[in-house]
Design a protein that fits this description.
Layout (H helix, E strand, L loop, with lengths): L1 H13 L16 E7 L23 E6 L4 E4 L6 E7 L2 E9 L2 E5 L2 E2 L7 E2 L2 E3 L4 E11 L2 E4 L67 E5 L13 E5 L13 E4 L8 E6 L4 E6 L8 E6 L13 E6 L2
Parallel strand pairs: 1-10
Antiparallel strand pairs: 1-4, 2-3, 2-5, 5-6, 5-9, 7-8, 10-11, 12-13, 13-16, 14-17, 15-16, 17-18
Amino acid sequence: MKTFLIFFILLLSSCGGLGGTEAGNPPTVTVASLTGTVSSTDNSVSALVFSSGSSNCFADLIIATDSEGNQSTATPNSSCIFTLDLTAGKAFQIALYEDDEFVSYLKFLKNRETQGLSQSLFLPNQELSINLGRISLSELGARPELEPGDLIDADDDGLFDLDDDDDNDDGTNDDEELDCDLDGFEDDYDLSFDDEFDCDDGEEFQPGDVVIFHAEPRQGEQFVDVDAEISFRASCEIDESTLTSSKFRVRGPGDVAVACDYSTQSGGDEAVCEPSSELASDATYRVTVEGVACEGGALLPVVTWQFTTE
C-alpha cells in the first residue's frame, strides 16, 4: 500500500497535479533592470560611479508605463542614479518628472543605420541588466548615453537590435511596424490594442496596403510641447498637394483650426504640420486625416487622434 501511495504521488507530480500554475501557483516572472543617471552636472557617468553628497538631478521620479497602463516607478538616489525593475516580455514608455512636473519621455534609437527614434522600449523575456548611462535632454527628448539596443537581441538571432532590421523576426522591417491605434506601442507589443483604430481592418497587413501606422504626438499623449510639430507616417509616398487644412486638420479648444505649414519628410512617407504659432497650454487637440492621398491617387484611410499639451 505504501509503495502504491508513493507511486501515485510521483505520478501526480510529473503530471503537474501537485504545484505549478495548474495548481494555482503564480508563473515565474522574468525581471529586467534599467539603470541610469539624471544628473545635470556629472559628465563622467558611463560607469555609473557613486559619489558622496547630493548632485543636481533634473528629475526626481521615473515612471515606466506598459501598454496596459501598468506603472513601475523609481526615485533617483543622492547621486541621481535610478534603477527600474520591469517585467520582461513587455514594451514600456518611460517618463521623467521633477516636483510633480513632467520633464520628458525617454527616446531610444531603433536602428543604427536609419537613426529612427522610438518612445517605447520592448524588453524581451530575458533576464537583462541594462545600463543607460547618463540621460541628457535635447529638443528630441531625453536620450540615454548608452542605447539598450546594443545589449538586447529580442529574436535571439545573434544580432543586437540596433544592427537588426527586424528585431522580432516577423518579416516586417522595424521602421515599417504597424501602430494602428497610434498610441506609441507597436501592434506586436501592444497588449491593449484599441480596435477603433484597426488600420488594417483586422486583416493581415500585406505589402502594398495603404495605411497610417505612426503618429506624433501619439494618441492620448499628454504633456506635449507647445512648439511640437504634428505628423504621421504612411505606407506610401504621400502626395504633398493633398496636405491641406481641410484634409490634414488640427483643431484645438473651441474647435478652432490650427494654421499649419505642411510638408513631407523621410523620403515622402511622413506628413508634417508645423503650426504657425504656439499651441495653447494645457489644451486638448484633435487631429483628423481625411482625403490625403498617396502619389498615384490611392486615398489614405480616415484617422483621428488627440493629444494634450503641457
